[in-house]
Amino acid sequence: MPWYWWLLLAAFSALVGFQFGLNRAPIWTWVWLIGTFVVGGWVLVWMSRTTITVEADPDGSRWLIVDQASLPATVVDRSMVVPESAKRNALGRQLDPAAFVMSKGWIKELALIVLDDPEDPTPYWLISSKNPEALLEAYAPSTVAAHNS
Q1: Are residues 76 and 123 in the same domain?
Q2: Residue 133: how many CA atoms within 13 Å on its side-chain side?
Q3: What keywords would UniProt list here (predicted)?
Q4: Residue from 96, 137, 92, 90 nearest 109 by CA
Q5: Model's pTM, two decimal places?
Q6: Is there a domain that residue 92 lies in?
Q7: What is the CA 12 to chain-centroid distance, rounded?
């Protein structure tokens, strides 16, 4: 979550607090200010709670786990980093409606994982990551495209 979103929340909370505190006892200003900041803070934390992990089974197979979704590395055909310059196109008109997308607007890059699983209609996964190169190397290093720029 960008730090300046917290500043915007503080400004919004102050605006709401002072607006609802007009012509009332001063305690109401503080009640609305603190209440708005707490609720808004909870929303910001909830929006940024996504966890991405790479786990390995005892047999050595790797799994990518994004919140409740999981993907074995055995079904990955190829993978690559989607740079910031191509993010808009990847999430725009070219996006397949059947794709699995976990995108956060404030994260600049995506990891693209193309699947080769005849039993799964999902063609690919698009996942926001602060370090997509490390994510793909940890998950399925043999599938990473040679040119990631």
Answers
A1: yes
A2: 5
A3: Membrane, Transmembrane, Transmembrane helix
A4: 90
A5: 0.75
A6: yes
A7: 24
